[in-house]
Amino acid sequence: METNEFWENSTKLARMEDSLPKQIFLLPIKVRPVFPGIITPLIVPPGRFIQSIEESSKGAGFLGLILLKEDESDLPSEDNIFQIGVVARILKKINLPDGGMNILVNTIQRFKINSIHTKEPVLMANVSYPEEELGTSKNNIKALMRTLLILTKELAQNNPLFTEDMKLTMMNVNEPAKMADFVCSILNLEKEEYQSVIEAIQINDRLEKVLLFLKKEIELVVLQKKIQEQINDKIDNQQRQFFLREQLKAIQQELGTGEDKTEIKYEKLLERLKSIPVAEEIITEVDREIDKFKNSDPISSDYNVIRNYLDLVDALPWEKPKEKDVNLVHAKKILNRDHHKLEDVKERILEFLAVHKLNPKSKGSILCLVGPPGVGKTSIAKSVAEALGRKFYRFSVGGVRDEAEIKGHRRTYIGAMPGKLISALKITKERDAVILLDEIDKMSQGFQGDPQAALLEVLDPEQNSNFRDHYLDLPFDLSDVLFIATANTFEPIPRVLLDRMEVIQLSGYITEEKVQIFQKYLWKKIFEKNGLNPDSFSMKKETVALLINSYSRESGLRGLEKTFDKLVRKIALKQVLKEKYSKEIREKDLVEYLGTPPFVDDRMTPKVPGTALGLAWTNAGGSTLLIEAVLIPGKGGITLTGQMGKMMEESANIALSFVKNYINNDVLFDKKAIHLHVPDGATPKDGPSAGITMATAILSLVTGQVIAPGFGMTGELTLTGEVLAIGGLREKIVAAKRVGIKKIIFPKDNERAFQEIPDYVKKGVSFYPVTRFEEVEKLVFPKSKGKKK
């Protein structure tokens, strides 16, 4: 056939409407449509469409293949299909064991759904068969077809998935419409893109769409081929480097020169360890790791693990530390420079340094500084390090739950690291560093292990000379390290751990001490922090004392520092805004800048029967405890409120029983009960030292007497009236002075501890040691006649 005749016939495509049925059974299909002119098998799952195939086979066997819009949809099939599909004729069908069917169909021509004829039980539609048109000139169609042929050949050359049969089929297709359908069927497109070609009735529109999709596919194949070539080149390059590296090693071994710098570094490490010397186990293990490193491929996972391990070994200070001269005069100056008062603490530290000077080989004890927040525990540890001329390292163990934080992870784990102690020595590069274990009382036990138990080996001078970190897995001598621990209270610390430490208690500061520390240290520090000159304003001692007592009543100095910082910020704002302010801060200015004082002392003086003022000890230092008692209807019992702990509840019951026996008034307690309350009910309270205070409050209530003014008291009471020793006497005295108490009753058994308290702390206060409650009664109730019979 001549070319002109072909194009003439192509413009007059045969209409098959006369031979194709106007009503056909519809078979929805998923993923991708089937284009006209293709014989292909289809698997139909069990269901309603099996009946459509059976009904269609009874006639001419025509079936409408229509693409679903959404493969997984709850919509009925008739609402989830496109409107243009391909009519096919069933050539063969095979029933499947699961109730489905495998059919072989020959697709013929596009059809369009005009309306749905039947929905149940089968899906049947009234259809028409659109006539295909060129849509443009013959030359344009010819040019489009040639371009399509060229691009398809290019795709076939770059895509190894194309088979020879597909290439042959492509060469034998001459009709533009069939050529476009065939090429589109072999592309990897989205469902909507396939459907757009099915719906393209005009041949030029169909060719243009297919050309666009074909161009995108070629670009994708070219990019994929480029990526594959890059990967192959990279693999080939790595293999080439590996072989060259092995050849270079062999040449270097023959020549005895040109070793890798890293390997030279590790060889020097081995020589260093042999010259110290260290335990044979260490040298053997390091030598073995170096051999493994040399024989490891740099791209292997073990390479960096071994390298990190050897770098850690190289960074650790294995050598014996140099002896440092301890100058006690210099050490005393440093302690006095950085800390005001705390004479007993300074003396204990100087004793420790003196022993170290006389016997440098003495392992000594581990210091544990215990005291409320803000009293200078961390700064004392820094001063000790400076006095000894050693490096200082601090890490907080508060909240640590994992044993590996102390002893490291085993190297078998991904991301394993050494423990904090080995890391500290790696950083300081000194084996006799001062390491501060901060907040040791706040460690807790988790499911990863018990870090407190891990510290037992670290803090025991008899064991830590062969400390073995899990990551390092070599014995390391920690006996030259000076460990200093800090804690707010020693109760949470396990006894076995506490036995390995020497506890040095730091009490809170009294007002006079705070005033001096404020003027000597804090004044300049806060001004520099806020960018002001220290002469921006002034404060008299009386104003400073008011600032301390009314705005920052605490054992330490952090609250005072924060409060004064707030005051200075207010002045800084006024300076920047160029507003006027008083150059001398007075009481009225404190109220203006800081607001109403949160602390008042009026309620701390018992003024009515049934009230007494006790002294208590807390984790934050000493505090005062106002106890109130009233009579309520009842039969001799006692009601307790104010979040008292178990020991405090026992003390209240002992106090009540003692007072009942003491006054011997059965008639009163047959009709009345006692309600005893400790204000500030949101704060938990516990301890036995409020025993005499509770008994005094109850006795004051039942006798109607108000206790003498100015008294505060502390002491444990027994059922027979004995007053037993208590703890935290210094903290309680400091707390009493803070609120203006001038008379303190305390157990005579505490006189030894009382004598150790500096005189400046006791100055201005009268003290009354007692052994029995009768002595307490005579002091607080001067007009009392004693025990009532």
Automatic annotation (TrEMBL):
<dbReference type="InterPro" id="IPR003111">
    <property type="entry name" value="Lon_prtase_N"/>
</dbReference>
<dbReference type="GO" id="GO:0006515">
    <property type="term" value="P:protein quality control for misfolded or incompletely synthesized proteins"/>
</dbReference>
<feature type="binding site">
    <location>
        <begin position="371"/>
        <end position="378"/>
    </location>
    <ligand>
        <name>ATP</name>
    </ligand>
</feature>
<dbReference type="GO" id="GO:0004252">
    <property type="term" value="F:serine-type endopeptidase activity"/>
</dbReference>
<dbReference type="InterPro" id="IPR015947">
    <property type="entry name" value="PUA-like_sf"/>
</dbReference>
<dbReference type="GO" id="GO:0005737">
    <property type="term" value="C:cytoplasm"/>
</dbReference>
<comment type="function">
    <text>ATP-dependent serine protease that mediates the selective degradation of mutant and abnormal proteins as well as certain short-lived regulatory proteins. Required for cellular homeostasis and for survival from DNA damage and developmental changes induced by stress. Degrades polypeptides processively to yield small peptide fragments that are 5 to 10 amino acids long. Binds to DNA in a double-stranded, site-specific manner.</text>
</comment>
<feature type="active site">
    <location>
        <position position="689"/>
    </location>
</feature>
<keyword id="KW-0963">Cytoplasm</keyword>
<dbReference type="InterPro" id="IPR027543">
    <property type="entry name" value="Lon_bac"/>
</dbReference>
<dbReference type="InterPro" id="IPR027065">
    <property type="entry name" value="Lon_Prtase"/>
</dbReference>
<dbReference type="InterPro" id="IPR003959">
    <property type="entry name" value="ATPase_AAA_core"/>
</dbReference>
<keyword id="KW-0346">Stress response</keyword>
<dbReference type="GO" id="GO:0005524">
    <property type="term" value="F:ATP binding"/>
</dbReference>
<dbReference type="InterPro" id="IPR008268">
    <property type="entry name" value="Peptidase_S16_AS"/>
</dbReference>
<feature type="active site">
    <location>
        <position position="732"/>
    </location>
</feature>
<dbReference type="Pfam" id="PF02190">
    <property type="entry name" value="LON_substr_bdg"/>
</dbReference>
<dbReference type="Pfam" id="PF00004">
    <property type="entry name" value="AAA"/>
</dbReference>
<keyword id="KW-0720">Serine protease</keyword>
<dbReference type="InterPro" id="IPR046336">
    <property type="entry name" value="Lon_prtase_N_sf"/>
</dbReference>
<keyword id="KW-0547">Nucleotide-binding</keyword>
<feature type="domain" description="Lon N-terminal">
    <location>
        <begin position="24"/>
        <end position="218"/>
    </location>
</feature>
<dbReference type="InterPro" id="IPR054594">
    <property type="entry name" value="Lon_lid"/>
</dbReference>
<dbReference type="InterPro" id="IPR004815">
    <property type="entry name" value="Lon_bac/euk-typ"/>
</dbReference>
<comment type="subunit">
    <text>Homohexamer. Organized in a ring with a central cavity.</text>
</comment>
<dbReference type="InterPro" id="IPR003593">
    <property type="entry name" value="AAA+_ATPase"/>
</dbReference>
<dbReference type="GO" id="GO:0016887">
    <property type="term" value="F:ATP hydrolysis activity"/>
</dbReference>
<dbReference type="InterPro" id="IPR027417">
    <property type="entry name" value="P-loop_NTPase"/>
</dbReference>
<keyword id="KW-0067">ATP-binding</keyword>
<keyword id="KW-0378">Hydrolase</keyword>
<dbReference type="InterPro" id="IPR014721">
    <property type="entry name" value="Ribsml_uS5_D2-typ_fold_subgr"/>
</dbReference>
<dbReference type="GO" id="GO:0004176">
    <property type="term" value="F:ATP-dependent peptidase activity"/>
</dbReference>
<comment type="similarity">
    <text>Belongs to the peptidase S16 family.</text>
</comment>
<dbReference type="Pfam" id="PF05362">
    <property type="entry name" value="Lon_C"/>
</dbReference>
<dbReference type="InterPro" id="IPR008269">
    <property type="entry name" value="Lon_proteolytic"/>
</dbReference>
<dbReference type="Pfam" id="PF22667">
    <property type="entry name" value="Lon_lid"/>
</dbReference>
<dbReference type="GO" id="GO:0034605">
    <property type="term" value="P:cellular response to heat"/>
</dbReference>
<feature type="domain" description="Lon proteolytic">
    <location>
        <begin position="606"/>
        <end position="783"/>
    </location>
</feature>
<keyword id="KW-0645">Protease</keyword>
<protein>
    <recommendedName>
        <fullName>Lon protease</fullName>
        <ecNumber>3.4.21.53</ecNumber>
    </recommendedName>
</protein>
<dbReference type="GO" id="GO:0043565">
    <property type="term" value="F:sequence-specific DNA binding"/>
</dbReference>
<dbReference type="InterPro" id="IPR020568">
    <property type="entry name" value="Ribosomal_Su5_D2-typ_SF"/>
</dbReference>
